[in-house]
Prior knowledge:
8 helices
Amino acid sequence: MKAExxxxxxxxxxxKFPLAQDxxxxxxxxxxxxxxxxxxxxGKRTTDEELAKKMGVKVTEIRTILNRLHYRGIAHYQKTKxxxxxxxxxxxxxxxxxxxxxxxxxxxxxxxxxxTAQDFEKTYTYFCCKKNCTSVPFEVAAExxxxxxxxxxxxxxxxxxxxxxxxxxxxxxxxxxxQQMQKIM
Length: 185
């Protein structure tokens, strides 16, 4: 099973997706993208010292990134004891498939939120001032006597069809990216 997981993670290059890069930056910092690229290109386990040397970064920073990725199941290590020194050596590998799995989960949640927003847009009438300070449903606009709570200008009903179409485009875009990710998994 371990060999199978290792072979799969070597073939998948998750970091080629801009979404994956954004995700890695968000969960483990800017250097995480470079680290994952190095590991994916190398295609085999590597030590934190090797990564630090290649990236020109302190080993402690590399370990921080690896631990953040490990917390999410993206980085995996193998621990061996050096019989001469008594110290443990850690060799790391990146599970690219896990990056895509986590991204797909996030994307599904994003689609659910967008669909909820879309339903809300279809159900309620929104009001906004000419400056577009804020958009509020009818009930809130009525509480403010149809005056913008930010600039005090008159509020008018907003054409929600455009907003519904914009949300639909976002949903379609996310679904397209999800299909691309699922193809390589």
